[in-house]
From TrEMBL:
The lineage of its organism: Archaea, Methanobacteriati, Methanobacteriota, Stenosarchaea group, Halobacteria. The keyword Signal applies. Residues 15-63, 91-107 have a biased composition (Polar residues). Residues 1-65, 91-116 are annotated as: Disordered. It holds the Pfam family PGF-CTERM. Residues 117-138 form the PGF-CTERM archaeal protein-sorting signal domain. The chain crosses the membrane at residues 116-135. This is PGF-CTERM archaeal protein-sorting signal domain-containing protein. InterPro entries: PGF_CTERM (IPR026371).
Length: 139
């Protein structure tokens, strides 16, 4: 869950269910609200701390029948391990802010941990076969 920075509304009117985002296009930020179904929200996402490049994006969202909302953003220019600040605003006195980290789990390929360092299996087998051939031909 996102880390609440400052909930400016009374109680827990807003919640952020997105735990982190990745630096790609079409990233959906999801949350919850205790406001009435159909309430229009303004979702703003901006750079936080030393996040580069500095940015500000906004999208609108509507509170659904189960209290959930979502908004989509483009984070393709943001670096891994930065943080973004998410502001959820329904009105001047109903808003909240959260911080969420940028993680890129897909940036590290799952094959990288399975690959052999150095020459690889095919070259190693060929070298062993060549060595065995040389030993046999010297006898």
């Amino acid at each position: 869950m996102g880390i609440p920075v400052a909930a400016q509304s009374g109680g827990d009117t807003f919640g952020l269910t997105t735990e982190n985002v990745t630096s790609t296009e079409n990233q959906t930020i999801r949350g919850t609200s205790t406001l009435e179904t159909g309430t229009e929200l303004q979702i703003r996402v901006q750079s936080s701390g030393e996040t580069e490049p500095q940015f500000l994006q906004s999208d609108s969202a509507t509170v659904g029948p189960t209290g959930k909302w979502n908004a989509t953003f483009d984070f393709s220019a943001i670096e891994t391990h930065d943080t973004v600040e998410v502001s959820v605003v329904a009105s001047e006195n109903q808003s909240a802010e959260f911080e969420t980290p940028v993680r890129n789990d897909q940036a590290s390929s799952s094959n990288s941990s399975e690959s052999a360092p150095g020459f690889g299996v095919v070259v190693a087998v060929a070298a062993l076969a060549g060595g065995a051939f040389l030993l046999r031909s010297r006898r």
